[in-house]
Amino acid sequence: MSMSDSDTSSQGGEYKNLRQISRERLLYEMLRSTKTGDSKSTWKVLVMDKVTVKIMSCACKMADITEEGVSLVEDIHRRRQPLPTMDAIYFIQPTKENVVIFLSDMAGRSPLYKKAFVFFSSPVPRELVNQIKRDTSVLSRIGALREMNLEYFTIDSQGFITDNERALEELFGDEESSRKVDACLNAMGTSIATVFASLREFPFVRYRAAKSLDPTTMTTFRDLIPTKLAAAVWNCLMKYKANLPNYPQTETCELLILDRSVDQIAPIIHEWTYDAMCHDLLNMEGNKYVHEVPSKTGVPEKKEVLLEDHDPIWLELRHSHIADANERLHEKMTNFVTKNKAAQMHQGSRDGGELSTRELQKMVQALPQYSEQIEKLSLHVDIAGKINRIIRELGLKEVGKLEQDLVFGDAGTKDVIDFLRTNQDVTRENKLRLLMIYAAVHPEKFEGDKIAKLMELARLPQEDMNAVYNMRLLEGAADSKKSSIVPFSLKLDVHKKKHAARKDRPGEEVAWQLSRFYPMIEVLIEKLSKGELAKNDYPCMNDPSATFHGNSNSASVRTGEIPAAHSVRSRRTATWARPRNSDDGYSSDSILKHASSDFKSMGQRIFVFIVGGATRSELRVCHKLTTKLKREIILGSSSLDDPPQFITKLKLLTAQDLSLDDLQISLDDLQI
């Protein structure tokens, strides 16, 4: 397979981000390459499976596909109408089922299509290639047979996920099945490797080592997940290195493979940025938001919008603290009115005084000639208003303060008890999230019955209690078979009393309330960039001296270092929430100023992959550190989870007979 013409590695050439590269490869390297000879000007059918259709939709729009000569998109698994005068482009996974269907489509005297251009999303097993070659009636009808090596979903310019939505359940669940675990990790490893094939990068592969304290302690299969995944990725990369044209032969970037045990709090705690609040509180479906807009009849109409990179206001505000987002929106509204004469006249007819954001919104809506200009601004004012209302109604500021105080060691058991007793109207979901944070911060409390008593005080049902207890399964070194309420880690003796203590760093302050918390990957990425990530805890597959299972944490403890999975979080400056006069990398001017020029002068890329689901706070950190470290940070995971989704998955770890629908927690749940 030939790669794109542009040099996409971080070693030089014109900079393009992950989503841009994926889009161009799909449109130009795949679709446009079929426009040859007598097939150049004809319309084609695009046939995909459920995975490749998602790959395509994450990177391209329907208009892009149509522009490349596709008039119809079909599902390979559905019965399709024969179109014997048209050519077909197959973009499919290399599975036995897909190959059988493809051969059935194109075999015999009456094939479904005139000619087939076949592109596989990942490397094709030799036996499937032989199966295709054996069918001589099909061979003459094949216009191309290639491996695209593109099997991931772009969720952001610097983020991707693999097709492993149930990874948490399959890998961390109570049912130990080595066959299922290996199959999941091998598929995940193949998908991750295709990211490096697309970007033409060859990484140093680092991974979280098994946490066993000594050789006599049995290592659990969960503890080996990052190790096994690193091996799966490495095997694929070695094949690319040997067989893929123009693939780098020396290392061009760094990859760090982690799992959810690295930070059990990030998926649960309330993240106070605009993006995270939208997805946590507004019950959005993916990036789709439904809002009401005025109509000519006077009756409000519902309109769906996508909160994505094409919206400049979303791009500016998404990583801002919600309080900062509110200020910026009000400022934008005010500026619009100030610069617009008609709006000033409208304002002059009022009594005077400072207008609220809502009044400003109504004012600009009364000026239809500016509707296109103001539409997106009004949308975000509407969203921010809803979020602020929910924060007030649910008392989230009080909940958020206690959550962060727990994490930084400024609150303990007594504070949680007092809060639960005096705040009876807190929702079931928020009580549960609070207790899950408490359990993650104080795993030693599982040795007694304190957790059970707290949950009884919170009046949480059994299924919610399961979510709290199942957090122990995320700690790789714990043996969950010993007890139903075992402690999270066997390493608690070292930092048991100070497990939650975070110290302020001299000269650093937080710009916005409730912005103290930061995900652990921020610390790990900074250490990796500086070359300070301990090789005992995070071995490298490229280093022949590194053992397959890694080493224990005991070495780092002896040298005075804190094991990274339990690193102490110190309070950090919320640079992403600084006032607008700072160059934070997120304001409109800053985005335009830094977008392409900065990336050209950046160092090697850093990739971080988290098994078991990533969070929006972790994605935000990757954008923030890209600016700070002058290295593009790309986040990958098996899924991108908002807190309600993650909690549902956590319940499923020991609830094999329940479905996602049975367990989904929403804001509509009855308050207890």
From TrEMBL:
First and last residue of the signal peptide: none
Protein origin, superkingdom: Eukaryota
Record-annotated membrane-spanning stretches: none
Entries under InterPro entries matching the protein: Sec-1-like_dom1 (IPR043154), Sec-1-like_dom3a (IPR043127), Sec1-like (IPR001619), Sec1-like_dom2 (IPR027482), Sec1-like_sf (IPR036045)
Record-stated family: Belongs to the STXBP/unc-18/SEC1 family.
PANTHER family referenced in this protein's UniProt entry, alphabetically: VESICLE PROTEIN SORTING-ASSOCIATED
Protein name, per record: SNARE-interacting protein KEULE isoform X1
Species whose genome carries this gene: Coffea arabica
